[in-house]
Design a protein that fits this description.
Layout lengths: L10 H20 L6 H12 L3 E2 H8 L3 H13 L3 E5 L7 E5 L1 H21 L8 H12 L6
Helix pairs in contact: 1-5, 2-4, 2-5, 3-4
Amino acid sequence: MAKPAIPLLSPIHLLHRASQRADGLFARQVRPSDLTPRQFIVLQAVADKNGLSQTGIMAVTGIDRSSTAELVRTLVTKGLLKRRRTRRDARVYAVRITSSGRQMLEAGMSATRAAEDELLLPVPENQRSLLVDLLTLVAIDAGER
């Protein structure tokens, strides 16, 4: 049998599989809403700093420009966020969370805690913070540190 070009135990493959599992656990916990993990993180970023621009959301979340614009547009359509052009620069939107958005954020926080608890079950409790630290090192570009 031929050896696979990319081993099944490669970090890239394992991170992808872990991401798929985390997304699935989140989706199961947050039902019946259709909130996605990326929508949740945008809600959280805006709730942490109401009036954040879409560029600011990109900087905080690491989500690319076009995806951020689409996520914000979707959340505005759902009534979870609202956006207005700023007085200083009419090209820039100030994004704010709505009361419905705050309710969805709470549901997302609860779903995240439950999904993370289940996701981390196989990891010994005394090694969980180390795992988060290592994932942070991998996830954050060296230029951002």
